[in-house]
Amino acid sequence: MTYSLITVEQSKSVITEAFRTLRTNVQFTSIDLKTQKIMVTSAGPREGKSVTVANLAVSIAQTGKSVLILDADLRNPTQHKIFGIDNGRGLSVALFEDEDFRDYLKETEVSGVTVLTGGPIPPNPAELVGSKRMKQLIQDASQEYDVILIDTPPVVAVTDAAILAQEADGVIMVVASGEVSKEYAQTAKEQLDKVGAKILGVVLNKVDVKTGDYYYYYYYHGSQDKRKKRHHRKEKASSSVSA
């Protein structure tokens, strides 16, 4: 599978603009509340939550804030693939060893974005993310970074996300357009509600956005590159958060 950090690769694309809107809407949705620790999850697999986390992190960092991505999807860690960094000593190892969490952090090529990768897949992920050490790690990290984005497994399949939602200030749920039923998404929301999670909103992902010549020229200032034109006329975009 190919992962794209489109907020870096295509700074003027419609998708990048969608992530800026997502960033802004998260800020406005929580204007009177502390939302430093934000968990991002999905109802089911392959809905794009990890890519959403990575691109949202870049968008936030571009405003001058320091962002830590915590890859807490210990069943299928992905952030190291997106950023092209090593996954040997990640979160699963940090939770076993009694050392400073900063020893496991990895800087990325994106200024302001740091990642604690998932690490080797453990036999007991739910127990690890629900441990006292995990709670302490998140608390310690919150003293170091402006924003912490927590990437978790899908809500319906396993309990990990519901456990971690209790440690977050707010939750964003990613839903793939045309792939997830309304009932399945509702089940995910109900499971989050049961643990008292504050749901900031929903990102509707994998939406086909067809753009005309005017929109294309608006972003590319009259470029005659036909190859780019064909590529950008149809893109998969994330929608903004809806409260």
Question: Can you give a write-up of this model?
Answer:
This protein has helices at 6-9, 14-29, 49-61, 79-83, 91-94, 125-129, 132-141, 160-165, 182-194, 213-220, 226-232; strands at 37-42, 67-71, 106-107, 113-116, 147-151, 170-176, 199-205, 207-210, 234-237. With 243 residues, the protein is of the alpha/beta class. The chain has a single domain (37-233), classed as Rossmann fold. A seven-stranded mixed sheet has the order 3-4-2-5-1-6-7, with helices on both faces. The radius of gyration is 18 Å and the shape is globular.
Structural class: alpha/beta
The dominant shape is: globular
| Sheet with the most strands: spatial strand order | 3-4-2-5-1-6-7
Sheet-strand content, in percent, reads 15-25%
Instruction: Assign a percent range to the helix content.
Output: 25-40%
Radius of gyration: 18 Å
Helix/strand order: HHEHEHHEEHHEHEHEEHHE
Low-pLDDT stretches are: 211-243
Number of strands: 9
Summarize, please.
By secondary structure, the protein is α/β, with parallel strands linked by helices.
Give structural attributes.
9 strands, 37% helix, Rossmann fold, globular, 243 residues, alpha/beta
What's the layout of helices and strands?
Elements: H1 6-9, H2 14-29, E1 37-42, H3 49-61, E2 67-71, H4 79-83, H5 91-94, E3 106-107, E4 113-116, H6 125-129, H7 132-141, E5 147-151, H8 160-165, E6 170-176, H9 182-194, E7 199-205, E8 207-210, H10 213-220, H11 226-232, E9 234-237
Parallel strand pairs: 1-5, 1-6, 2-4, 2-5, 6-7
Antiparallel strand pairs: 3-4, 8-9
Helix pairs in contact: 2-3
